[in-house]
Amino acid sequence: MHSGDQRFEARNPCQDIKIAACLRGVAKSLGSTRVLRGFDLDVRAGKVTALLGPNGAGKTTAVSLLTGRLAPDAGTATLFGLDPRRSAARTRLGVMLQTAGLPDMLTVAEVVRLQSGYYRYPRTLVETLALAGLTDLAERRCGALSGGQARRVHYALAICGRPDLLVLDEPTATMDRASARALWATVREAADAGAAVLLTSHDLMEADALADRVVVMDAGVVVADATPAALRARAGGSVIRCRTRIVLTAALAMPSVHDASVEGAELRVVTGDGAATVRALLLADPDLLALRVADATLENAIALLLAPANQRIAA
Ligand SMILES: Nc1ncnc2c1ncn2[C@@H]1O[C@H](COP(=O)(O)OP(=O)(O)OP(=O)(O)O)[C@@H](O)[C@H]1O
């Protein structure tokens, strides 16, 4: 490598040792669909990064590029500073995809043992099964597992090699809340121990509970990249609900109101100044009923980011 290349390597963020995986200026089409356009993503060591967005936004495609299942049409995909298809990079990776089968006739312990054999420093079988909540199911054939139990086996396969990057594509989609919370705790532990974690999810409570950073994408581009707290702050302070005769357009025109909608018999208003909006609502309709004020959530923030421009009102 000559000195010019070395200077490039030093400046290139994808070569930073703290960045486990990196997409830069990526474009990708599948069939006639332009799925990703000028897409950037960094997945950092010791952090949980949540990649969020509506169905079809391109999340799974971005994950496939980072894990070497797809190659970009333009731009670069890097895994531990290498091409994601290189086995030296892939052996440091643990992946839990949305759709993956399990061999029906093998037991849970057998598939975990098989997968562990792929890695250089795997966890013990006992440890992996315990982390995935599978100790009592070790001898059950995979074909006899429920959907949520099978998902836990996929999680076990993703973590058994002590990966430096753990990629979880909608990990808890079919799990009950208790199983999901147990998984969150082990994911948090992995990140606190230094692993990079990339999570896609439609469960915004999950993203809020786990993520250090949230990347929101829509139609193949990043629309926000911030901490959950910063995104919540952007949504404004409060969500107000009440039964009222105030019409939607009047609510949207009130000062500090970011967003408003009618939900059943109620008006729901997202506002940057709860007290001022309550005053304005009571002034407009002194007879309003069932008034409730709550803090804005990550869900409010993302709904606001993804709302069509003509439904947004600047604060
Ligand atoms: N093999 C394919 N051929 C053509 N289009 C595809 C193919 N795979 C995916 N797509 C399209 O690419 C777009 C992005 O798909 P992708 O699965 O990445 O979205 P996603 O954000 O993961 O969605 P979801 O939340 O539903 O899982 C969608 O419009 C999808 O229909």
TrEMBL record:
PANTHER family referenced in this protein's UniProt entry, alphabetically: ABC TRANSPORTER ATP-BINDING PROTEIN
CDD domains, sorted: ABC_DR_subfamily_A (cd03230)
All residue ranges annotated as the ABC transporter domain in the record: 21-244
Source organism superkingdom: Bacteria
Alphabetized SMART domains for the sequence: AAA
Extent of the signal sequence: none
Record GO terms (molecular function): ATP binding
Keywords from the UniProt entry: ATP-binding, Nucleotide-binding, Transport
Residues spanning the membrane: none
Species in which this protein is naturally found: Sphingomonas cynarae
Protein name as annotated: ABC transporter ATP-binding protein
